[in-house]
Amino acid sequence: MPTITTELTERHIVLVTRATAGTSDLAHMIRDQGGRFVVMGAETEPGRRLVLSLNTGNKGIAVFLPGDPDSPDDLAEAVAECHRCWGEGKNVVVLSPAGQAGS
Fold first, then answer.
1. What's the predicted TM-score (pTM) here?
2. In what side-by-side order are the strands of the sheet with 91-95?
3. Nearest CA to 86 among 39, 49, 38, 27?
4. Residue 84: how many other CB atoms lie within 10 Å
5. 56 partner at 20 to 30 Å CA-CA among 24, 35, 62, 92?
6. What gap in Å lies between CA 28 and CA 91, rounded to an integer?
7. Contact call for residues 78 and 96 (beta carbons, < 8 A)
8. 3-state helix, strand, coil in the chain (%, to 5)
């Protein structure tokens, strides 16, 4: 299992470009260390379910942004949303399934 530190989560925002079982498991590990998230996807239900599960008991640490992860314009909007929600000056880490946009 990857090691995720609180120091890492304080400097980074996680952009999940597609909600899958794998990205969901990793997002929950990051959440447990204080992560903040923007979840993006064209299929809204998996993304919304991930946001709900990340936010349960955590006072809004994740937001959902509908969009196409294969679109450069939508990805740029998602990065901008990361900074609007969680602050400028933090790095955005893209979490997506292997072989997909942003991976």
1. 0.83
2. 62-66, 37-41, 12-16, 91-95
3. 38
4. 11
5. 92
6. 19
7. no
8. 45, 20, 40
